[in-house]
Amino acid sequence: MTSAWQRTAAGANLLGSDGRLGVTIFEEMTGLAVRHGAINLGQGFPDEDGPAEMMEAARSAILSGANQYAPGQGIPRLREAVAEHQARFYGIALDPWREVVISTGATEGIAAAVLALAGPGDEVLTFEPFYDSYGAMIALAGAEHTTVPLHAPAFQPDPAELEAAFTPRTRLVLLNNPHNPTGAVFGRETLERIVALAARHDAVIVTDEVYEHLVFGDRHVPVASLPGARERTVTISSAGKTFSFTGWKVGWISGPEELVARVRTIKQFLTYSSGTPFQEAVALGLGYPDEFFAAAADTLRAKRDILAEGLRAAGLDVFVPEGTYFITADTSPLGIDDAPALARRLPELVGVAAIPVSVFCHLGGAERTRSLLRFAFCKKAPLLHEAASRLAGLADAL
Ligand code: PMP
Ligand code: GLN
Questions:
Q1: Which terminus has fewer CB within 10 Å in the chain: N or C?
Q2: Is residue 198 lining ligand 1, measured as CB closer than 6 Å?
Q3: What is the pLDDT of residue 15?
Q4: How far is CA 217 from CA 44, 183, 326, in A?
């Protein structure tokens, strides 16, 4: 019998990282960036704080005594704000008392959902590449991780491959839309196909929508809003991306009472409850007018374009993302076929850090994505221009 840390480490793909226990690829690249004074476009976090008013709200919550445990389910005001947000943007009606739980970031929501809803003998299906914690959590749950490849340039699944990936053992589909690391957005048709396949196989859908407001085309379509989806879908999101407070670690889980109750049963023994004063502040933010959320995407779109242009000028093939704050670029036009090795040299070579896409894959997928790098563009425009000018020297530096 393997222990939990062994299963977790086996499921987390350490390819391309130096494999040190307890150090993610993101932290490894951040460490290299700091050591070489490089611009860190690896680990995805903004270099500007979110709204000052929300920071003030957290501060006054602390000063006015919101310093003891929050209820395990989350403070009522935030649960209500999550329910109102889902109704306002997506027309999804939720009972804040039974169908919403606050988590310690989306990370805990994912962990609790996978542990609650899948176990030995079950298959959990994700796209590949997949966000790193999915592999680790599926392994920790003792379930089997199956994948459907996303195909460049748009990083969409092939309908036949999607259908073939479902089996009678598929218990859970762990979706991520918009998608990290590729920046792909899955449209209504793909989502409807997933809902139909999940229904046919009686699988639950867990959907990680942390980038829901960071989309550059049409408004985000949550899978839970599609016909036939609500009763089998658990939706996870968080304040980190939308409000540029990745360090606050406030997330939320919503869906039908019965599924949410199962997830809550696990969550209560992971962290029990999540930072009280931050919950107050996030409740305020979720109530901001529509324009606030639209402005976040507009600002980011301009940044995306700066970095995309810089990467193109550096000689890379760029896959322009439809959402998230990540760009995937192919280094093969520069004659590179080992992006993980390049990623480790890049901070010293040109003073920019990135993440190899293969770390978001199993072995076969890692082969297919071996020349790809992921760059984060949630940084101030002058810094992105500086990164672009450094990357312009890449071909000569190689
Ligand atoms: N899911 C995805 C797809 C992410 O990219 C991230 C963070 N980058 C998370 C979950 C984790 O979110 P949180 O910080 O709220 O735990
Ligand atoms: N989710 C962030 C990213 O994709 C990093 C979070 C982390 O460091 N685990 O870059």
A1: N
A2: no
A3: 47
A4: 21, 12, 15
